[in-house]
Amino acid sequence: MNFSRKLPVGIQSFEKLRRDGYLYVDKTAFIRQLIQSSNPYFLSRPRRFGKSLFLSTLEAYFLGQKELFKGLYLEEAEEEQAEFEQRAAWEAYPVLYLDFNTGNYIESDELGMNLNSHLCKWEKLYGVEPSEQNFALRFAGVITRACQQTGKQVVILVDEYDKPLLQTMGVNETLNEQYRNTLKAFYSVIKTCDQYIRFAFLTGVTKFSKISIFSDLNNLRDISMEKQYAGICGITQAELEANFQPEIQALASEQDLTYQQTVTTLKQWYDGYCFSPAGDNMYNPFSVLNAFVKERFGSYWFSTGTPTFLVNYLKEAHYFIPDLDGNVELNESGLETYRAVTENALPILFQSGYLTIIGYIKEARLYK
Protein backbone atom coordinates (compact mmCIF):
# COMPACT_ATOMS: atom_id res chain seq x y z
CA MET A 1 0.00 0.00 0.00
CA ASN A 2 1.30 3.46 -0.87
CA PHE A 3 0.81 6.01 1.86
CA SER A 4 -0.02 9.58 0.98
CA ARG A 5 2.70 10.57 3.42
CA LYS A 6 6.39 9.92 2.84
CA LEU A 7 8.16 8.14 5.69
CA PRO A 8 11.87 8.97 6.05
CA VAL A 9 13.38 5.48 6.18
CA GLY A 10 17.14 5.96 6.05
CA ILE A 11 16.92 9.73 5.45
CA GLN A 12 19.73 11.47 7.34
CA SER A 13 19.58 14.91 5.75
CA PHE A 14 17.23 17.36 7.46
CA GLU A 15 17.22 19.58 4.38
CA LYS A 16 16.24 16.70 2.08
CA LEU A 17 13.61 15.52 4.55
CA ARG A 18 11.98 18.95 4.75
CA ARG A 19 12.29 20.00 1.10
CA ASP A 20 11.01 16.66 -0.21
CA GLY A 21 8.02 16.55 2.13
CA TYR A 22 8.90 13.62 4.36
CA LEU A 23 7.16 13.20 7.71
CA TYR A 24 9.23 14.68 10.54
CA VAL A 25 8.87 14.07 14.26
CA ASP A 26 9.69 17.51 15.65
CA LYS A 27 12.84 17.39 17.81
CA THR A 28 13.71 21.06 17.44
CA ALA A 29 12.79 21.93 21.04
CA PHE A 30 15.98 20.16 22.06
CA ILE A 31 18.00 22.58 19.94
CA ARG A 32 16.69 25.51 21.94
CA GLN A 33 17.84 23.78 25.14
CA LEU A 34 21.27 22.94 23.77
CA ILE A 35 22.20 26.34 22.36
CA GLN A 36 21.95 28.01 25.77
CA SER A 37 25.49 26.77 26.49
CA SER A 38 28.71 27.11 24.53
CA ASN A 39 30.30 24.04 26.13
CA PRO A 40 30.76 21.05 23.79
CA TYR A 41 28.23 18.21 24.05
CA PHE A 42 28.54 14.47 23.61
CA LEU A 43 25.66 12.07 22.85
CA SER A 44 25.86 8.28 22.79
CA ARG A 45 23.04 6.36 21.12
CA PRO A 46 22.82 2.96 19.36
CA ARG A 47 23.14 2.75 15.59
CA ARG A 48 20.15 3.69 13.42
CA PHE A 49 18.64 5.83 16.15
CA GLY A 50 18.53 9.23 14.44
CA LYS A 51 21.85 10.73 15.54
CA SER A 52 22.85 11.77 12.02
CA LEU A 53 19.47 13.38 11.34
CA PHE A 54 19.67 15.36 14.57
CA LEU A 55 23.16 16.58 13.68
CA SER A 56 21.88 17.59 10.25
CA THR A 57 19.08 19.53 11.97
CA LEU A 58 21.65 21.35 14.09
CA GLU A 59 23.61 22.14 10.94
CA ALA A 60 20.54 23.65 9.26
CA TYR A 61 19.84 25.78 12.33
CA PHE A 62 23.36 27.16 12.56
CA LEU A 63 23.43 27.85 8.81
CA GLY A 64 20.38 30.05 9.36
CA GLN A 65 18.10 27.99 7.10
CA LYS A 66 14.91 29.41 8.57
CA GLU A 67 12.71 28.11 5.75
CA LEU A 68 13.39 24.49 6.75
CA PHE A 69 11.85 25.05 10.18
CA LYS A 70 8.49 26.35 8.99
CA GLY A 71 5.72 24.91 11.17
CA LEU A 72 8.14 23.43 13.70
CA TYR A 73 8.65 24.39 17.34
CA LEU A 74 11.84 26.29 16.63
CA GLU A 75 10.28 28.58 14.02
CA GLU A 76 8.70 30.78 16.69
CA ALA A 77 10.99 29.82 19.57
CA GLU A 78 14.07 31.16 17.78
CA GLU A 79 12.38 34.52 17.17
CA GLU A 80 11.36 34.74 20.84
CA GLN A 81 14.80 33.75 22.10
CA ALA A 82 16.54 36.19 19.78
CA GLU A 83 14.32 39.03 20.96
CA PHE A 84 15.01 38.13 24.59
CA GLU A 85 18.78 38.01 23.96
CA GLN A 86 18.65 41.17 21.82
CA ARG A 87 20.28 39.53 18.82
CA ALA A 88 19.29 38.79 15.24
CA ALA A 89 17.29 35.61 14.74
CA TRP A 90 18.56 32.83 12.48
CA GLU A 91 22.17 33.99 12.46
CA ALA A 92 24.41 31.98 10.14
CA TYR A 93 27.67 30.60 11.49
CA PRO A 94 30.57 28.81 9.81
CA VAL A 95 29.82 25.11 10.32
CA LEU A 96 32.49 22.40 10.27
CA TYR A 97 30.73 19.04 9.83
CA LEU A 98 32.93 15.99 10.28
CA ASP A 99 31.35 12.71 9.18
CA PHE A 100 32.95 9.35 9.98
CA ASN A 101 30.03 7.26 8.72
CA THR A 102 31.72 6.52 5.43
CA GLY A 103 34.98 4.66 5.09
CA ASN A 104 36.54 1.29 5.77
CA TYR A 105 38.86 2.07 8.65
CA ILE A 106 40.51 -1.34 8.57
CA GLU A 107 42.74 0.20 5.89
CA SER A 108 45.67 1.93 7.58
CA ASP A 109 45.37 5.25 5.73
CA GLU A 110 41.56 5.56 5.77
CA LEU A 111 41.31 7.81 8.85
CA GLY A 112 44.01 10.09 7.49
CA MET A 113 42.28 10.27 4.12
CA ASN A 114 38.97 11.18 5.77
CA LEU A 115 40.48 13.89 7.96
CA ASN A 116 42.50 15.27 5.06
CA SER A 117 39.43 15.37 2.82
CA HIS A 118 37.46 17.42 5.35
CA LEU A 119 40.39 19.71 6.12
CA CYS A 120 41.11 20.38 2.42
CA LYS A 121 37.48 21.34 1.87
CA TRP A 122 37.57 23.76 4.80
CA GLU A 123 40.99 25.14 3.82
CA LYS A 124 39.62 26.05 0.39
CA LEU A 125 37.13 28.26 2.20
CA TYR A 126 39.32 29.71 4.93
CA GLY A 127 42.92 29.32 3.74
CA VAL A 128 45.90 27.26 4.83
CA GLU A 129 49.25 27.93 6.49
CA PRO A 130 52.35 25.93 5.41
CA SER A 131 53.46 25.67 9.04
CA GLU A 132 50.40 23.56 9.89
CA GLN A 133 51.94 20.14 9.34
CA ASN A 134 49.56 17.76 11.13
CA PHE A 135 45.80 17.24 11.36
CA ALA A 136 45.39 18.92 14.75
CA LEU A 137 47.31 22.05 13.72
CA ARG A 138 45.39 22.28 10.46
CA PHE A 139 42.08 21.90 12.32
CA ALA A 140 43.05 24.64 14.78
CA GLY A 141 44.09 26.87 11.89
CA VAL A 142 40.79 26.36 10.08
CA ILE A 143 38.78 27.17 13.22
CA THR A 144 40.80 30.31 13.94
CA ARG A 145 40.66 31.66 10.38
CA ALA A 146 36.97 30.83 9.95
CA CYS A 147 36.16 32.91 13.01
CA GLN A 148 38.46 35.76 12.04
CA GLN A 149 37.25 35.93 8.44
CA THR A 150 33.51 35.68 9.11
CA GLY A 151 33.39 37.52 12.41
CA LYS A 152 31.37 34.61 13.80
CA GLN A 153 32.38 31.84 16.13
CA VAL A 154 32.54 28.37 14.61
CA VAL A 155 30.14 25.44 14.99
CA ILE A 156 31.65 21.94 15.05
CA LEU A 157 29.54 18.82 14.44
CA VAL A 158 31.06 15.33 14.55
CA ASP A 159 29.06 12.29 13.45
CA GLU A 160 30.07 8.77 14.63
CA TYR A 161 33.34 9.93 16.14
CA ASP A 162 34.13 6.37 17.28
CA LYS A 163 33.64 4.43 14.03
CA PRO A 164 37.38 4.22 13.21
CA LEU A 165 38.00 2.85 16.70
CA LEU A 166 35.14 0.35 16.61
CA GLN A 167 36.11 -1.06 13.23
CA THR A 168 39.68 -1.76 14.34
CA MET A 169 38.98 -2.86 17.93
CA GLY A 170 39.90 -6.51 18.36
CA VAL A 171 40.95 -6.68 14.70
CA ASN A 172 44.07 -4.53 14.52
CA GLU A 173 45.08 -3.20 17.93
CA THR A 174 48.17 -1.45 16.59
CA LEU A 175 46.06 0.55 14.14
CA ASN A 176 43.45 1.12 16.86
CA GLU A 177 46.11 2.66 19.11
CA GLN A 178 47.31 4.83 16.23
CA TYR A 179 43.76 6.03 15.60
CA ARG A 180 43.26 6.81 19.28
CA ASN A 181 46.37 8.98 19.37
CA THR A 182 45.39 10.79 16.18
CA LEU A 183 41.84 11.46 17.34
CA LYS A 184 42.90 12.49 20.83
CA ALA A 185 45.12 15.22 19.39
CA PHE A 186 42.45 16.21 16.86
CA TYR A 187 39.60 16.53 19.38
CA SER A 188 41.80 18.37 21.90
CA VAL A 189 41.66 21.32 19.50
CA ILE A 190 38.01 21.86 20.51
CA LYS A 191 39.32 22.72 23.99
CA THR A 192 42.31 24.81 22.97
CA CYS A 193 40.28 26.82 20.45
CA ASP A 194 37.22 27.29 22.64
CA GLN A 195 37.35 31.09 22.30
CA TYR A 196 36.60 30.67 18.58
CA ILE A 197 33.83 28.09 19.01
CA ARG A 198 30.13 28.89 19.42
CA PHE A 199 28.88 25.30 19.70
CA ALA A 200 30.17 21.74 19.37
CA PHE A 201 28.26 18.46 19.32
CA LEU A 202 29.79 15.00 18.97
CA THR A 203 27.91 11.73 18.56
CA GLY A 204 28.86 8.07 18.62
CA VAL A 205 27.78 4.66 19.81
CA THR A 206 30.30 4.18 22.60
CA LYS A 207 32.06 6.31 25.19
CA PHE A 208 35.81 6.11 24.95
CA SER A 209 36.51 8.77 27.59
CA LYS A 210 38.33 6.39 29.90
CA ILE A 211 40.88 5.46 27.29
CA SER A 212 41.94 9.05 26.75
CA ILE A 213 40.15 10.05 23.55
CA PHE A 214 38.56 13.02 25.33
CA SER A 215 41.00 13.37 28.23
CA ASP A 216 42.08 16.81 27.01
CA LEU A 217 38.48 17.86 26.37
CA ASN A 218 37.54 18.14 30.03
CA ASN A 219 34.71 20.61 29.44
CA LEU A 220 32.75 18.07 27.35
CA ARG A 221 29.20 17.61 28.66
CA ASP A 222 27.89 14.08 28.24
CA ILE A 223 24.09 14.27 27.88
CA SER A 224 23.62 10.60 27.00
CA MET A 225 21.82 9.72 30.25
CA GLU A 226 20.40 13.11 31.23
CA LYS A 227 16.64 13.02 31.76
CA GLN A 228 15.97 16.22 29.82
CA TYR A 229 17.64 14.74 26.72
CA ALA A 230 16.31 11.17 26.98
CA GLY A 231 14.03 11.76 23.99
CA ILE A 232 16.48 13.64 21.76
CA CYS A 233 16.69 10.68 19.35
CA GLY A 234 14.14 7.95 18.76
CA ILE A 235 10.36 8.12 19.17
CA THR A 236 8.43 8.41 22.43
CA GLN A 237 5.02 6.85 23.01
CA ALA A 238 3.39 10.28 22.79
CA GLU A 239 5.21 11.06 19.53
CA LEU A 240 4.20 7.71 18.05
CA GLU A 241 0.51 8.23 18.73
CA ALA A 242 0.52 11.93 17.78
CA ASN A 243 2.42 11.60 14.49
CA PHE A 244 1.60 8.18 13.05
CA GLN A 245 -2.15 7.63 13.41
CA PRO A 246 -2.75 6.89 9.69
CA GLU A 247 0.18 4.46 9.59
CA ILE A 248 -0.95 2.71 12.78
CA GLN A 249 -4.44 2.32 11.34
CA ALA A 250 -3.09 0.96 8.03
CA LEU A 251 -0.89 -1.52 9.89
CA ALA A 252 -3.86 -2.55 12.03
CA SER A 253 -5.98 -3.22 8.95
CA GLU A 254 -3.24 -5.24 7.26
CA GLN A 255 -2.61 -7.34 10.37
CA ASP A 256 -6.32 -7.73 11.21
CA LEU A 257 -5.90 -6.00 14.56
CA THR A 258 -7.69 -3.15 16.28
CA TYR A 259 -5.97 0.21 16.50
CA GLN A 260 -5.20 -0.26 20.20
CA GLN A 261 -3.95 -3.81 19.66
CA THR A 262 -1.56 -2.46 17.05
CA VAL A 263 -0.27 0.21 19.43
CA THR A 264 0.27 -2.46 22.08
CA THR A 265 2.06 -4.75 19.62
CA LEU A 266 4.30 -1.92 18.42
CA LYS A 267 5.24 -1.30 22.03
CA GLN A 268 6.04 -4.98 22.57
CA TRP A 269 8.23 -5.11 19.48
CA TYR A 270 10.04 -1.77 19.47
CA ASP A 271 9.63 0.16 22.74
CA GLY A 272 12.59 -1.44 24.49
CA TYR A 273 15.04 1.42 24.90
CA CYS A 274 15.55 3.59 27.96
CA PHE A 275 18.43 6.02 28.39
CA SER A 276 17.61 7.56 31.76
CA PRO A 277 16.01 6.08 34.91
CA ALA A 278 13.42 8.86 34.86
CA GLY A 279 13.14 9.19 31.09
CA ASP A 280 10.55 7.88 28.65
CA ASN A 281 10.96 4.53 26.97
CA MET A 282 11.99 5.05 23.36
CA TYR A 283 11.05 3.36 20.10
CA ASN A 284 13.79 2.67 17.59
CA PRO A 285 12.81 4.85 14.59
CA PHE A 286 14.36 2.55 11.99
CA SER A 287 12.25 -0.39 13.16
CA VAL A 288 9.03 1.59 13.53
CA LEU A 289 9.28 3.23 10.11
CA ASN A 290 10.04 -0.11 8.45
CA ALA A 291 7.06 -1.71 10.16
CA PHE A 292 4.82 1.03 8.78
CA VAL A 293 6.26 0.90 5.26
CA LYS A 294 6.14 -2.91 5.03
CA GLU A 295 2.92 -3.17 7.05
CA ARG A 296 4.17 -6.03 9.18
CA PHE A 297 6.12 -6.52 12.37
CA GLY A 298 9.71 -7.67 12.10
CA SER A 299 13.16 -7.48 13.68
CA TYR A 300 14.30 -4.70 11.37
CA TRP A 301 16.99 -3.13 13.55
CA PHE A 302 18.48 -6.47 14.59
CA SER A 303 18.41 -7.85 11.05
CA THR A 304 20.72 -5.06 9.83
CA GLY A 305 23.49 -7.01 11.54
CA THR A 306 25.34 -7.07 14.84
CA PRO A 307 28.46 -4.88 14.58
CA THR A 308 31.67 -6.86 14.08
CA PHE A 309 33.34 -5.12 17.01
CA LEU A 310 30.61 -6.34 19.36
CA VAL A 311 30.74 -9.91 18.06
CA ASN A 312 34.50 -10.01 18.62
CA TYR A 313 34.15 -8.38 22.01
CA LEU A 314 31.56 -10.87 23.27
CA LYS A 315 33.61 -13.82 22.06
CA GLU A 316 36.45 -12.62 24.25
CA ALA A 317 34.17 -11.85 27.19
CA HIS A 318 32.51 -15.32 27.23
CA TYR A 319 29.08 -13.89 28.11
CA PHE A 320 25.94 -16.00 27.88
CA ILE A 321 23.53 -13.24 26.91
CA PRO A 322 20.27 -14.84 28.22
CA ASP A 323 21.77 -14.86 31.72
CA LEU A 324 21.84 -11.06 31.66
CA ASP A 325 18.07 -10.59 31.27
CA GLY A 326 16.87 -8.84 34.43
CA ASN A 327 19.85 -10.08 36.43
CA VAL A 328 22.27 -7.17 36.11
CA GLU A 329 22.84 -4.29 38.51
CA LEU A 330 25.32 -1.51 37.77
CA ASN A 331 26.07 1.88 39.23
CA GLU A 332 26.07 4.93 37.00
CA SER A 333 29.79 4.99 36.30
CA GLY A 334 29.71 1.28 35.49
CA LEU A 335 26.89 1.78 33.01
CA GLU A 336 28.28 4.86 31.34
CA THR A 337 31.92 3.96 30.95
CA TYR A 338 33.44 1.81 28.27
CA ARG A 339 36.82 0.34 29.14
CA ALA A 340 39.03 -1.53 26.72
CA VAL A 341 38.86 -4.80 28.66
CA THR A 342 36.67 -7.82 28.05
CA GLU A 343 36.04 -8.57 31.72
CA ASN A 344 33.03 -6.25 31.64
CA ALA A 345 31.01 -6.10 28.43
CA LEU A 346 27.89 -4.63 30.05
CA PRO A 347 28.53 -0.93 29.30
CA ILE A 348 29.20 -1.58 25.63
CA LEU A 349 26.11 -3.83 25.38
CA PHE A 350 24.01 -1.00 26.83
CA GLN A 351 25.54 1.68 24.63
CA SER A 352 25.14 -0.49 21.53
CA GLY A 353 21.43 -1.03 22.21
CA TYR A 354 21.45 -4.68 23.32
CA LEU A 355 20.75 -3.98 27.01
CA THR A 356 18.40 -1.36 28.42
CA ILE A 357 17.39 0.13 31.77
CA ILE A 358 14.35 -1.55 33.34
CA GLY A 359 14.60 -0.04 36.81
CA TYR A 360 16.55 2.13 39.23
CA ILE A 361 17.25 1.47 42.91
CA LYS A 362 17.42 5.05 44.14
CA GLU A 363 18.79 4.32 47.61
CA ALA A 364 21.71 2.32 46.24
CA ARG A 365 21.98 4.34 43.01
CA LEU A 366 21.97 1.15 41.01
CA TYR A 367 20.51 0.53 37.56
CA LYS A 368 18.78 -2.75 36.69
From TrEMBL:
It holds the Pfam family AAA-ATPase_like. It comes from the Bacteria. Residues 8-214 form the AAA-ATPase-like domain. InterPro entries: AAA-ATPase-like_dom. PANTHER family: AAA-ATPASE-LIKE DOMAIN-CONTAINING PROTEIN, CONSERVED PROTEIN, WITH A WEAK D-GALACTARATE DEHYDRATASE/ALTRONATE HYDROLASE DOMAIN. This is AAA-ATPase-like domain-containing protein.
